[in-house]
Amino acid sequence: MSSTDAAGDPAGGRGDQAATGLRLRGRDREITAVREALDTVRGGRGACVVVEGAPGVGKSRLLGELDEMGRRSGFDVVSVRADELDQYAAGAALQSALQSAHGSDRAAAATDDQRLWLLDSITDALEDRAQHAPVAVLVDDAQWADPATLFVLRTLPGRLAASRILWVLAVRSDTERPTVARVRDDLERLGARWLTLGPLPQQELQDIAADVLGVRPSPGLARLLRAVAGNPFLAIELVRAFADTDAAKMEAGEASLLHDGIPVSFRRSIAARLDRLPEDAVRLLQIGSVLGREFDLGTAARMLGRQVGSLLSGIEAALHAGLLSADGPRLAFRHDLIRQAVHENLPPAVRMALHREAADSLRGARSAEVAWHVVMSGGPVDDDAVTTLTTAVRELSSSAPDAAADLAQRVAGLLPPHDGRRITLLTDAAEYLGRTRRVHEALDLVDATLPEGLEPLQEANLRLVAAEIHQAAGDDAAAMTHLQQALDLPALPSDLRVRLLKTKATGHVYLGDITAAEQTGPWLVEASYRSHDPAVIVSAMVFQSQTSFYRGRLARSLELAEGATRRAGTQSAARYLRPPRIPALWLATVLTTSDRLADTERVLREGQREAEALGLGWSLPHWHAARACALLEQGALDDAAVEAEASLMVAGELEITLQNPQARSVLALVEIRRGDLAKARDHLRAAETGSGTNMTQRYGPWVSLARAALADAEGEDGEAAAALTAGFQSREPARLLAVPPSHWPGIVRIALRDEDPSLARAVSGALRGLAAEDGCRQIVGAVRAHVDGLVDRDPRALESAVTGYRSTGRPLALAAACEDLGELMAESADTTPAIPYFEEAGRLASASGAGRDQERIRRRLRRLGVRTAPVRNHTAGTSGPGRLTESERKLIPLVVEGLTNRAMADQLYVSVHTVNTHMKHIFTKLGINSRVELTRLAIERAIGADGAD
Q1: Which residues have C-beta within 8 Å of that of residue 693, sequence separation ≥ 6?
Q2: Could you give the CA distance from residue 187 to residue 192 in angstroms, rounded to a whole number?
Q3: Average model confidence (pLDDT) for the chain?
Q4: How far, in Å, are 52, 384, 427, 473 from residue 448 at the CA level?
Q5: What is the Cα–Cα distance from 855 to 860, expressed in whole angstroms?
Q6: What residues have CB less than 8 Å from 369, skipping those under 6 apart?
Q7: Distance in angstroms (rounded) separating the CA atoms of residues 155 and 187
């Protein structure tokens, strides 16, 4: 893929780019459209244009015109052009074109998934450029773009819609590449402007002919122009051929199309032009057509068995004939239609043999290029070719796992059925698909491969991949089935058996069966501590912490989690563990249940920023979801919602198959507190879709809690209690500990409202199983008192809960205890003592943004004869500066200063994805679409962190 650098100089040959010197004819409407897009971006908003059409219809010519218009208007133009060989390339050509001259771009991490790093690094580069000048990103021949660039094009136009960036893609209308179709679909949903370049009218073709010849075309040539079906490039070639040959020999009636869209007449025209060239030029063009639109002269010479110097006369002839150009470091066909015509004129057997020879000649070069030639040769493949193809698959997997999976399956199809490497490739393909939304395809591939009579080692590896995919998707029961079947296989290597057992033990933790987790290979933990791999030791410590936690030994769990986090901080290999074995992520879960809730934010902030810096994109949705849970526990409803939305946004960008139901459940709980039950219902439906209805699944307690809270808010007491019974009826603390402590009294309250004390007693019994030791004594004591006060209707216990909550940093838990105590006191003859508790509960609910709670308390106070101010509505439909949250207001002065989202995130010490979500909210609430509008509004109306508006 060729590109232009920051100065606009070509980094590679651009073939037919607008260097024809001819006037652009018949595209006035399209020129007007792109000029409007430039004006939109100059005004401060992003825009996207897709230019679509058949080969030769003028897409590249239009992009060339846009390039010149943009530069004249002060745009920073970033231009890349794809080549057919780029389809299996690792990395993103767009990223290469954006790399800063001083090399300050963030280094890629040595991780198996670099998609988030890729998106963030390109976002940073574009935002930085857009601060200094409007930016135009032009991608020509996008149907051949490398998979990583296509991934970027699907995602960033939406993410950067408020920045001064114009995205323009040129793509063939007949492309059948699925990833390109998805780019088109996503951009269409985003509202991209579509410019379909159709055939030019006959008069425009005659004007083009006059431009080429310098005189009006003769009637005979005008008749011949009808054969090109309105295609301007073919018209130019026809006119040039007409000028160079006897017109009487040209056949005007042939306009039939081949399957690839190249007219027979054009192919014959190219063949005729080759007939007039010396043999050296013909052979060079034929070999070049196999190597690609741009090709290395040295490689072509090797395939011809010649020295480069001996080809100079042939090169000169091809250049003089206008078939090749030499504008960049490699020779290039002036248009890909010329290359295709030369290529298609070769007999199929010759083409395939030459592609095989090209693959051999290019060994040691870019593996993606070799892979393309091997695929084009149609097989069979030798050992060296398989090695090269496997390398290409591996290189591609970090930035485009779906494309890597497709290539792996294609390579597997070139191998004999019983070749062991075939099963390895299919196993890798399933693993790569499991990182994308194509999880069902991954599992279908597993199911299709298992019956093939696999060796035990092959089957065990395939089932391990299937189990990990099921676990990632939240289907722990299916994962356990695969793991057990793999463990039943004979003669497995000890390291693989250990991996299977560790994954199985983790599955038991997910399922809440702690006894089974402890009994899965009791020797595992001891063996892990003897390992030389620090990641194995850290993983064992986390596992011990988890089993201690769910047994109710909270202090021991906290000690192990902190030890694992410290050790991981000094051992780089341990940083790449997967959730839930990421030490800091697990530590935050334990801290959320302890008296050190305030420490949770620091642990999550530092761990999340390190994960971003290392490019561990797959972990980001989990970090954001964990922050959402911690912030909800702290009563920061607005910020909790932002983090939950960020979790869903990152999961969507990375195409993670099932967005975290925990994040959806947090959003549902926040909206219930705010009073928007319709939104809560939507989030709950999405959470149930993501987690299923099986309460034993890992996110079941969260979904159950949200379902019960919504039913309770709607007055459905029986339905609310039933939603909780399946998840929390055990007297063991494991399921109760799956949600933070401030929610536990609410479970009891809902159960008592249904007049069924069994669930309330079960929760109380589970609380008795918790060891209230140092580190969690305050919160566990307060929750026990709160639950006892509800179950026994004991005001003294509730007073103790109120006192205990005051030092825990959980304002909504304190508000609930105050309200419960107020309700109990209001039943007495003297209701006066209840009023201060209701008033305190109302103030706490108001400070947290819990509008529905505040309104309920306000009505209760009114019945007691106390008047209070109306509750401010928190519905999304309300707009204006007054609706901005404190966190959103902090960003506005930084936007006015000209900071990018990344710079704001660094200054505020938060995730850039959190900033992205806040910015979306700001634009929505203020009814604007760009940073320019926000800056103007902030200055005019003095909107800022001080709360003025």
Answers
A1: none
A2: 5
A3: 85
A4: 38, 27, 11, 20
A5: 9
A6: 85, 89, 292, 362
A7: 9
Nearest Cα to 798, choosing from 825, 830, 829? 825
The pLDDT score that the predictor gives to residue 740 is 95
Do the Cβ atoms of 565 and 587 come closer than 8 Å? yes
Lowest mean pLDDT across 228-237, 252-261, 569-578, 885-894: 252-261
Band (pLDDT 50/70/90 cuts) for residue 725 is confident
pLDDT tens readout for residues 549-603: 998 899 999 999 999 999 887 765 544 555 556 899 999 999 999 999 999 999 9
Q: Which residues contact 844 (CB under 8 A, 6 or more apart)?
A: 635, 811, 812, 814, 815, 818
Work out the number of other CB atoms within 10 angstroms of the CB of residue 598.
12
Confidence of residue 902 (pLDDT cuts 50, 70, 90): confident
Cα radius of gyration (the chain): 33
Q: What is the pLDDT of residue 446?
A: 95
Q: In Å, how far from its chain's centre is CA 403? A: 15
Q: What is the pTM of this model?
A: 0.77
DSSP 723-776: HHHHHH--SSSTTGGGS-GGGHHHHHHHHHHTT-HHHHHHHHHHHHTS---TTT
pLDDT of 943 reads 74
Half-sphere exposure of 309 (CA within 13 A, CB side): 0
| Both tokens assigned to 184 | 């088109």
Q: What is the pLDDT of residue 691?
A: 52
| DSSP H/E element including 52 | strand 47-53
Distance from the Cα of residue 329 to its chain's centroid: 35
Per-residue pLDDT at 472: 76
CB atoms within 10 A of CB 893: 15
Q: How confident is the model at residue 243 (pLDDT cuts 50, 70, 90)?
A: low
491 three-state secondary structure: coil
Is residue 108 pLDDT above 80, yes or no? no
| Number of CB atoms found within 10 A of residue 873's CB | 13
Using alpha carbons, select from 840, 830, 841 the residue that is nearest to residue 864.
830
Token pair in block for residue 313: 């006369």
Q: Looking at 113-164, which runs of residues are DSSP E strands?
A: 135-140
Cross-strand partners of 294: 332
Q: CB-side exposure of 438: number of CA atoms within 13 Å?
A: 20
- Edge to edge, what strands does the sheet with 324-325 contain? 294-295, 331-333, 324-325
Among candidate residues 214, 236, 216, the one with its CA nearest the CA of residue 225: 236
Q: Looking at residue 360, what is its pLDDT?
A: 87
Measure the CA–CA gap between 632 and 661, rounded to whole angstroms: 15
d(CA 197, CA 138): 17
Summarize the chain as % helix, strand, coil (round to 5): 65, 5, 30
CA atoms lying within 13 Å on the CB side of residue 524: 26
